[in-house]
Automatic annotation (TrEMBL):
Primary localization: nucleus
Full protein name: DUF659 domain-containing protein
Single GO MF annotation: zinc ion binding
Residue ranges that the Swiss-Prot or TrEMBL entry lists as coiled coil: none
Keywords: Metal-binding, Nucleus, Zinc, Zinc-finger
Record has Nucleotide-binding as a keyword: no
UniProt cross-references to InterPro entries, sorted A to Z: RNaseH-like_sf (IPR012337), ZnF_BED_domain_contain (IPR052035)
Species in which this protein is naturally found: Phaeosphaeria nodorum (strain SN15 / ATCC MYA-4574 / FGSC 10173) (Glume blotch fungus)
Keyword Cytoplasm assigned: no
Intracellular or extracellular location(s): Nucleus
GO cellular component terms listed in the entry, alphabetical order: nucleus
Length: 303
């Protein structure tokens, strides 16, 4: 393999890691190195020796291709629209903001380009977020003439963010240029329907609101939905999953062959995954026999 190209190999390897969302430390696992050694000793020798080296290479690659992204943005046929959202790592040790540019080319193609992932230290105030957004827009040559609309979720600090960005980019109307994320709005509506968190939704006289809230809280805790969510949350250990599987199999045994369901695990809803409550309820409906039997035998432990 005399024509082995180390740089082309590393370029392809880091893109493989990024495209598949793989941890950079996978390169240092013995099994990974053994795999590449079987292919070629040159390939094994070209592997980085630490995850930090992989990250450094990835950042160098990012900075190398950034001028191409700037060129693409500067030649956009449409305004450049921006969306961004933040999240924190486990333990809330670090906070990041993903920033994406959306635009149309002269040929009519729609492009969605992630352009930055700044780390945001301290409180995620609107002003702090705006500082990161403004710096990113300027780094990519986006001006008040080329900047379009912002599509964001309904977090209140986004109002402050866009107002601050507006002051830096021609003092545009922040209310007009900030579009609400439709799926997030639908998610909030769904949660209000499920959990009754909005006082205005009761539409009753003020003296009845406390009673209504107490009733809804009790229903969430002890009613069908509350019990189901409690059970789903409780089934998290290997032991509890085994008990649920036994109940599901026992339920299947009482059904004709055509009506039996697959042996699947319950889905635990996660508040930041907007479809997770739907997925959890859909799965619970499909596994109804298993849930009924599990609740009959084990529900006293979770109520």
């Amino acid at each position: 393999m005399g024509n082995f190209d180390v740089q082309r190999f590393r370029h392809a390897l880091v893109l493989w890691l990024l495209d598949n969302n793989l941890p950079m430390e996978i390169i240092n696992r013995a099994s990974t190195r053994e795999l590449f050694r079987e292919v070629s000793t040159e390939a094994e020798g070209a592997l980085w020796r630490s995850p930090r080296s992989v990250a450094t290479y990835a950042m160098r690659l990012f900075h190398a291709i950034r001028p191409q992204i700037v060129d693409a943005l500067s030649s956009a046929a449409s305004k450049i629209h921006i969306s961004f959202d933040g999240w924190t790592t486990k333990g809330e040790a670090r906070g990041f903001f993903g920033i994406v540019a959306h635009f149309a080319t002269a040929s009519g193609e729609i492009h969605d380009l992630p352009i930055a992932l700044p780390q945001l230290n301290g409180a995620h105030t609107g002003e702090a977020i705006a500082t990161a957004i403004v710096a990113t827009l300027r780094a990519y040559g986006i001006t008040s003439d080329t900047l379009g609309y912002f599509v964001l979720d309904n977090a209140s600090n986004n109002d402050t963010t866009i107002a601050a960005v507006a002051r830096e980019f021609g003092d545009f109307n922040p209310t007009q240029r900030r579009l609400r994320c439709g799926p997030h709005t639908i998610n909030l509506i769904g949660q209000a329907l499920l959990f009754g968190n909005n006082k205005d939704a009761y539409d009753n006289a003020a003296e009845h609101i406390d009673d209504e809230e107490a009733f809804i809280a009790a229903w969430r805790k002890h009613g069908a939905l509350g019990t189901l969510l409690s059970v789903t949350t409780y089934i998290k250990t290997l032991q509890q999953h085994a008990l649920f599987t036994e109940c599901l199999k026992a339920s299947n045994n009482n059904l004709p062959a055509a009506a039996r369901v697959k042996i699947l695990r319950p889905i635990k809803p996660v508040v930041t995954r907007w479809n997770s409550y739907y997925s959890a309820l859909e799965r619970a409906t499909y596994l109804k026999g298993g849930f009924d039997l599990y609740i009959e035998k084990h529900v006293s432990r979770v109520t």
